[in-house]
C-alpha cells in the first residue's frame, strides 16, 4: 500500500481546532448555566441588547400601571403586568439558550437553523438511529466476541494527530449532519451533548496515550472471516481417503508412509488476475485519474474520472497497468504515476504544491480522516488478508444478507402467491440463484417495454450520471432504463425483488411524502429516494460483452451514510442464444480455473452481494458477461444500495 510521507505533518498547525474542544468544560458550563437561571435576570449580561430593551420597556409599562388613578382598573392592570413580566422572562431565557446553543466558533453571532432541518423527518424508517460509528469501540470489552458466525474482532490504531477528525464522525452522528457541512464549518452547538459512551472512551484513551507517551489510541472492530474451503464445499470431506482423516502411519523403517499421506484439498488456481484499485487524493484540489491504456501511448489513454479534494475513486484493473493523475485544467501534466499490483492496489496522491499553510481547518480535518482510514486499512489487511476498499468508519450493511455458508445451501423464499427455492452457487463471493423468478410472458413483456422506450449505448447510471466517457472495449451492449412507475409489470418486479432481498417493499419506491423543490435549498434530498436504481434492461448482440468489473462505488469521505451498491439482481429474459454466460472469475471453487460460470435461463434470477458483512466492499464480486456468440441476449439488472442511494 502506498502511504503519504510524515513530512507533510511538519507544516500542519500544532493542533487543529475541533468543535469538540469545548466539551472538556461541559459540566462546568452546565453548572454555571444552572446558577444563572436561578439568579436575578438583571445579573445576566449575556443577552442580546434587543432583549434587554424589551425587558426595560416592560418594566416601564409596569411603573405606569401602578400610578393609575382608576382603581376599578387596578386589578386588571396587575394581571396584565404579571403576564408581561412572565413573558419577558421566558423570552430572555429562550434568547439566552439560543445564544448558548448556536454560538459559532471564531464568531460571536448566532447560527441560523440547521442545514439538516429535514434530517430526522423525511427519511426511511430504516435510518432511525443510524450511526456511522456503530461498529467501532474504544471502551474496554464493549463489543461482543461474536455478533454473527463469521465476524471476528481485531484491534486498530488511530494516530493522535488524527483523533480530532475521528471525533468529528461522532459529532456528525449526534447532529445527523449527513454531509458534514456543519461540523467541517465549525457550526457545532457549543452545548451539544454527545451521549455515545464510545466518544467519551475515545477521549479518555487520548488522555491515557498522552500520559503514557504513545502516539496512537487503540480501538476495536470486526472483520469478516469467510468459511473454510472445506466448509464451503462439504462434499469434499466425504470423498477424502480414509487415511487422510487419520494420523500418518510409519513403515518398518520408521519413516512416514508418504503414499498414504494425501494433500488437503485446496481451491483451484484461478487464471484471472484482476482486482480493484483505489486512488486517494490527499490535496485540496480536484484531480483527474487516467489509465494509460493497452497501447502505452497518448492515443490509448482513457479518462477514469475526477477525484474530488480529499476523496477517492476506484476502478477494476490487472497487474502491471499504469495510471496517472493530472490537474483538471491540463490532462497532459502527470502529477503522479503508478503501476499497480494486487499487493499494492491503494495509491495516494499528496499535495504537490507544498502550500500547506493555505489549507483551511476543514482541509486538515478531511486530510486526517483519510490518514485515519489509511492507518485502519493496514490493521484490517493484517487481520483479514484483504484490502480495505471502503472508508473508515463504515458500519455493517443496514440491509440483510442472505446466509451463504456452503455451496448448494437451500433457502425457501415466498414470492407473492408462491414459494421458490434459492440456492447458493458461491460463498466467496456470495452468489445465489433462483429459477422462475419471472414467467415467460413477463420476460417477453419486459423486452417489449425496453424496445419501445429505445435502446442506447450502455452506461453505468441512468439520467445525468450517464454522461461519461464510454469505453467500447469494456462494454459494447445497448440498454434502456425503466423506473418502477413505468408499468404494472415493473412495479411487480420491484415488489418481488424486495421479497427476495428480505426487505420492506416500500424501500424500493419513492416515499409518499417525497417532494423535491429545486427552489427550496432546505428541501429534502437523497434520503427520500428509493434505495434501488431504475431497472436496466440490456441487449447484447453477437460479439458484444461486458468485461470484468465491480458494481460497488466509492462514496465521499464526508458522506455519513457511506452509500454504495450492496446487492445486484440479474434477471435473464431469454435463452435462445449461445455464449453470454455470467462469469465470476475470482470465485473460490475446487476445480474451475475460470471461477464460477452461470448459464442464462429465461426467467432465472441471480443475486449477488457487492459488500461484505463487515462493511467493506467485496473485491471478489468482480464479474463479467462473456461475449455472445450467436443470437441476442436480453438481461435486466437491478442495483440496490445500502443504506441509501447516492
TrEMBL record:
Membrane spanning residue stretches: 76-94
Lineage: Eukaryota, Sar, Stramenopiles, Ochrophyta, Bacillariophyta
Protein name: Probable prolyl 4-hydroxylase
Domain of life of the source: Eukaryota
Biased composition (Polar residues): 1-13, 242-256
Keyword Mitochondrion: no
Segments of this protein annotated with the region Disordered: 1-60, 241-268
Any single Pfam family the record assigns to this protein: 2OG-FeII_Oxy_3
Biased composition (Acidic residues): 39-57
Amino acid at each position: 500500500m502506498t502511504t503519504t510521507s510524515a513530512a507533510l505533518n511538519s507544516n500542519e498547525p500544532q493542533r487543529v481546532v475541533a468543535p469538540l474542544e469545548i466539551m472538556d468544560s461541559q459540566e462546568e458550563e452546565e453548572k454555571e448555566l444552572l446558577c444563572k437561571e436561578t439568579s436575578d435576570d438583571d445579573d445576566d449580561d449575556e443577552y442580546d441588547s434587543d432583549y434587554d430593551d424589551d425587558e426595560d420597556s416592560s418594566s416601564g409599562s409596569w411603573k405606569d400601571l401602578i400610578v393609575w388613578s382608576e382603581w376599578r382598573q387596578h386589578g386588571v392592570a396587575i394581571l396584565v403586568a404579571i403576564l408581561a413580566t412572565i413573558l419577558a422572562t421566558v423570552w430572555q431565557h429562550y434568547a439566552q439558550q439560543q445564544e448558548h446553543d448556536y454560538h459559532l466558533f471564531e464568531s460571536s453571532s448566532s447560527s441560523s437553523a440547521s442545514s439538516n432541518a429535514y434530517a430526522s423527518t423525511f427519511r426511511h424508517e430504516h435510518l432511525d438511529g443510524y450511526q456511522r460509528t456503530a461498529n467501532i469501540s474504544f471502551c474496554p470489552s464493549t463489543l461482543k466476541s461474536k455478533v454473527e458466525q463469521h465476524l471476528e474482532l481485531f484491534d486498530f490504531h488511530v494516530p493522535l494527530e488524527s483523533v480530532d477528525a475521528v471525533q468529528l464522525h461522532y459529532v456528525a452522528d449526534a447532529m445527523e449532519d449527513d454531509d458534514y457541512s456543519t461540523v467541517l464549518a465549525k457550526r457545532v452547538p457549543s452545548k451539544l451533548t454527545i451521549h455515545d459512551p464510545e466518544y467519551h472512551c475515545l477521549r479518555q484513551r487520548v488522555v491515557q496515550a498522552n500520559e503514557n507517551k504513545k502516539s496512537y489510541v487503540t480501538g476495536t472492530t470486526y472483520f469478516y472471516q469467510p468459511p473454510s474451503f472445506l466448509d464451503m464445499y462439504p462434499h469434499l470431506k466425504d470423498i477424502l481417503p480414509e487415511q487422510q482423516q487419520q494420523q500418518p502411519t510409519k513403515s518398518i523403517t520408521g519413516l512416514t508412509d508418504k503414499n498414504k499421506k494425501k494433500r488437503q484439498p485446496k481451491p483451484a488456481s484461478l487464471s484471472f488476475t484482476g482486482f480493484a484499485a483505489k486512488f486517494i487524493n490527499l490535496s485540496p484540489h480536484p484531480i483527474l485519474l487516467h489509465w494509460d491504456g493497452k497501447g502505452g501511448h497518448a492515443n490509448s489513454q482513457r479518462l477514469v474520472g475526477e477525484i474530488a479534494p480529499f476523496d477517492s475513486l476506484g476502478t477494476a484493473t490487472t497487474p502491471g497497468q499504469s495510471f496517472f493523475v493530472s490537474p483538471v485544467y491540463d490532462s497532459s501534466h502527470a502529477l503522479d504515476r503508478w503501476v499497480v499490483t494486487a499487493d499494492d492496489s491503494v495509491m495516494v496522491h499528496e499535495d504537490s504544491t507544498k502550500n500547506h499553510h493555505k489549507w483551511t481547518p476543514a482541509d486538515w480535518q478531511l486530510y486526517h480522516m483519510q490518514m485515519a482510514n489509511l492507518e485502519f486499512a493496514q490493521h484490517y489487511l493484517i487481520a483479514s488478508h484483504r484490502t480495505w476498499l471502503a472508508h473508515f468508519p463504515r458500519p455493517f450493511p443496514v440491509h440483510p444478507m442472505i446466509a451463504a455458508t456452503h455451496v448448494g445451501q437451500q433457502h425457501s423464499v415466498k414470492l407473492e402467491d408462491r414459494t421458490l427455492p434459492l440456492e447458493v452457487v458461491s460463498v466467496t463471493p456470495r452468489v445465489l440463484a433462483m429459477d422462475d423468478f419471472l414467467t415467460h410472458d413477463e420476460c417477453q413483456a419486459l423486452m417489449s417495454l425496453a424496445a419501445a422506450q429505445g435502446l442506447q449505448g450502455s452506461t453505468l447510471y441512468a439520467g445525468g450520471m450517464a454522461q461519461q466517457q464510454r469505453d467500447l472495449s469494456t462494454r459494447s451492449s445497448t440498454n434502456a432504463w425503466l423506473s418502477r412507475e413505468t408499468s404494472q409489470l415493473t412495479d411487480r418486479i420491484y415488489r418481488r425483488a424486495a421479497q427476495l432481498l428480505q426487505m420492506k417493499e416500500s424501500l424500493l419506491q419513492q416515499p409518499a411524502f417525497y417532494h423535491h423543490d429545486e427552489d427550496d435549498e432546505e428541501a429534502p434530498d437523497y434520503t427520500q429516494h428509493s434505495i434501488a436504481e431504475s431497472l436496466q434492461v440490456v441487449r447484447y448482440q453477437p460479439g458484444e460483452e461486458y468485461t470484468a468489473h465491480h458494481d460497488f462505488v466509492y462514496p465521499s469521505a464526508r458522506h455519513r451514510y457511506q452509500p454504495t451498491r450492496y446487492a445486484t439482481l440479474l434477471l435473464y429474459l431469454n435463452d435462445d442464444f449461445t455464449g453470454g454466460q455470467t462469469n465470476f472469475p475470482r470465485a473460490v471453487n475446487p476445480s474451475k480455473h475460470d471461477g464460477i460460470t452461470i448459464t442464462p435461463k429465461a426467467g432465472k434470477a441471480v443475486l449477488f452481494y457487492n459488500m461484505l458483512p463487515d462493511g467493506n466492499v467485496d473485491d471478489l464480486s468482480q464479474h463479467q458477461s462473456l461475449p455472445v456468440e450467436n443470437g441476442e441476449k436480453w438481461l435486466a439488472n437491478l442495483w440496490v444500495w445500502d443504506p441509501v442511494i447516492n
